[in-house]
Design brief:
Order of helices and strands: HEHEEEE
Radius of gyration: 15 Å
Strand content: 35-45%
Number of strands: 5
Largest sheet: 5 strands, antiparallel
InterPro entries: Cystatin_dom, Cystatin_sf
Distance between the termini: 45 Å
Strand order of the largest sheet: 1-2-3-4-5
Helix content: 25-40%
Shape: globular
Protein name: Cystatin domain-containing protein
GO molecular function: cysteine-type endopeptidase inhibitor activity
Keywords: Protease inhibitor, Signal, Thiol protease inhibitor
């Protein structure tokens, strides 16, 4: 295992465990600080992977994270509700998506990315 990867994994666990309630193992717990840099990176990863999997056809752009949950498993699962803009125009309509990302030893895997509300502004 590379020292940098291990350090990143420990940092991720420390950040998340410091923001969830007393018994975080197994169940979903709210992420109190969704503006944390690591949480923002996970959301950007999810949007980027969605765009990649759709061959960048009608790309989405992350606007904000509205809500987040974390689950401590063999690694960490993050469930985020994200607001995205559709297309590259500044006045493009937005939609809300729910995504889940699994993070283990610094590696991220997109589990799902699903629209839950369409056409918000």
């Amino acid at each position: 295992m590379k020292p940098v990867t291990f350090l990143m994994a420990l940092t991720t666990v420390a950040v998340v465990l410091s923001t969830v309630s007393a018994n975080p193992y197994g169940g979903w717990q709210p992420i109190e600080n969704i503006h944390n840099y690591r949480i923002q990176e996970i959301a950007k990863f999810a949007v980027g992977m969605h765009n990649y999997e759709n061959n960048f056809k009608d790309p989405l752009r992350l606007v904000s994270i509205r809500r987040g949950l974390v689950q401590v498993v063999d690694g960490m699962n993050y469930k985020l509700d994200v607001m995205v803009a559709e297309g590259n125009r500044l006045d493009s309509k937005g939609s809300m998506y729910r995504t889940e990302v699994h993070v283990r030893l610094g590696a991220m895997e997109l589990i799902f990315f699903t629209r839950i509300v369409k056409g918000l502004n």
